[in-house]
Amino acid sequence: MQSCIYESDYETFTTNLRKHEELNMKRRMIWIAPLAILAMVLFVTLGGYVVTHLWNWLLPGLFGWRQITFWQGLGLLHCAEYSLEDSGCMGRAALIFGGACASAAGA
Q1: Which among 50, 32, 53 is positioned nearest to 42, based on CA atoms?
Q2: Contact (Cβ atoms closer than 8 angstroms) between residue 52 and residue 60
Q3: Tens of pLDDT, residues 6-25
Q4: Mind spelling out the 3-state secondary structure of the chain?
Q5: What predicted TM-score, i.e. pTM, was given to this entire model?
Q6: Domain segments of the chain: what residues?
Q7: Which of 14, 26, 87, 90 could be joined to 94 by an S-S link, Cβ 3.0–4.6 Å?
Q8: What does the alpha-carbon distance between residue 70 and residue 8 come to, in Å, rounded to a whole number?
């Protein structure tokens, strides 16, 4: 029994397969993009609340400093992220996952 694949059949198969994959990718992107945006907004919001509550819990009692709002806490988080990035650290990822600064690691 001899089996033969003709070039025209192969091109038809791959073209149909490519179209099918493109449709699946478009369907996935319709769901992934809004979920990614929602996840980023939730992550930033949670970070702002954590900074605000930690500040309001610790610093007024220890040093007599005034309490801050959510937006001030979000600003502090943003400033801390940029100050760590400028010093050679990995920013928020280093804080969350316990990474060390490049200068402290001897690199």
Answers
A1: 50
A2: no
A3: 555 556 656 666 777 777 77
A4: CCCCCCHHHHHHHHHHHHHHHHHHHHHHHHHHHHHHHHHHHHHHHHHHHHHHHHHHHHHHHHHCCCCCCHHHHHHHHHHHHHHHHHCCCCCHHHHHHCCCCCCCCCC
A5: 0.56
A6: 7-97
A7: 90
A8: 64
